[in-house]
Design a protein that fits this description.
Layout lengths: L1 E8 L5 E3 L2 H7 L3 E5 L5 E5 H12 L6 H12 L2 E3 L6 E3 L2 H6 L5 E8 L1 E6 H13 L1 H10 L3
Antiparallel strand pairs: 1-7, 2-6, 3-4, 3-5, 4-8, 7-8
């Protein structure tokens, strides 16, 4: 399980050190892909497999289903941790998420999200200011 928020930086070769407490779950490999809200998603191989099966089963006749599957699947890349616990983030994914140097790595139960530090700060500020409304909507869903 991934939880928490960590500040890290990407080096000149596009490598990102994964927080130590997340490394064991990624030891058998991982997949990084375009995320939502201009972030990247990083999944352990097993979790990625579950999601990929669901995406592959979406109805081909619906344009939104095709678009979302393309966003997630076509942008995906297998990655592995090096001896220092780093992964190489492909340039096209770094560009998608506007990742330059300073990033925030967030744990979200079954996945990791990687954000540009300033985008994360803006997003977090907005969500925190709307927390009551969000909680109310989730209450309607039984959460």
């Amino acid at each position: 399980m991934f939880i928490g928020e960590y500040n890290h930086s990407i080096d000149e070769k596009g490598r990102l050190a994964i927080p130590v407490k997340f490394r064991k779950a990624l030891a058998k490999g991982a997949v990084v892909t375009r995320g939502l809200d201009t972030s990247l998603f990083l999944f352990p191989k097993e979790e990625w497999g579950k999601l990929a099966e669901k995406l592959a089963s979406l109805p081909l006749g619906q344009s939104n289903s095709r678009a979302f599957a393309r966003l997630m699947l076509a942008g995906a890349m297998d990655v592995s941790l090096d001896k220092q616990g780093r992964v190489v983030l492909p340039e096209y994914l770094r560009e998608y998420a506007s990742l330059m140097k300073n990033v925030v790595v967030t744990g979200l139960y079954n996945r990791i999200e990687i954000w540009d530090e300033s985008k994360w700060a803006s997003y977090k500020k907005q969500v925190e200011s709307d927390a009551d409304a969000v909680a109310e909507k989730l209450g309607e869903l039984g959460i």
